[in-house]
Design goal:
Elements: H1 3-10, H2 15-29, E1 33-40, E2 48-53, H3 57-64, H4 66-71, H5 73-80, E3 85-87, H6 89-93, H7 98-105, E4 111-119, E5 123-131, H8 139-164, H9 178-188, H10 193-200, H11 204-217, H12 223-232
Antiparallel strand pairs: 1-2, 1-5, 3-4, 4-5
Helix pairs in contact: 1-8, 2-8, 9-11, 9-12, 10-11, 11-12
Amino acid sequence: MLQGGFTSVLQTRNRDEFQDEIVSFTKRLGFETVSAMVVIDHLLGEAEFITVDNAPQAYRESFAKFENGRRDPVMQHCRRQTMPIVWGQDTYVQSGLADKWEEQSRFGYRTGIAMALHMPEGRHFFLGVDRDQPVPSDRGELTRLVADLQLFAVHAQDAALRILTPAATEPGLPALTPRELETLRWTMEGKTAWEVGNILGITERTAALHVNNATHKLGCVNKHQAVLKALRLGLIR
């Protein structure tokens, strides 16, 4: 696992540093290009797309066209699901878009891995890495690559929302109870709800409820994201 990149991306302070970190991680993962995108759904009007990428300049015009997302089977998968997709030529051929794959393959977009995180309040985070070589045929190696990308995405989305959409983040600190903070601290240490319950003298169900409440108050989709956000806000250390 490429653990250095997980913590480094959390420490980025601006868009340039964020781009440097995701490109560096992508290269170490064995891929050439990366796209990180924050999508904010608005009740009125079109959704807002904020993208950081290292797409080749020659491909940028085509890459940036919004209508491409409407056709792209990888983007459509990520729009509906949270499971990562490992894509290649067959993905586009089966969707009747062999011509689109032919076009992008000229710029190095032949295979890749992509995923999305869907958060409360109509916020989404997309992360995709691409290259011109096939993905590993060894199932174990491919599983490791997908797992590394998933873990990095959890960290990267926290940084992306903070840096790219400061207006979309809450102005004040969420009001977590002492018990909710305690359960998050022990969750940070890798403890299960059953273990947290034993430590704090409460039931497993109550411990899980405290974690779920904290996760909801922090606007996160799971306890891992909640711990990361609580750390960034200084609620736990």
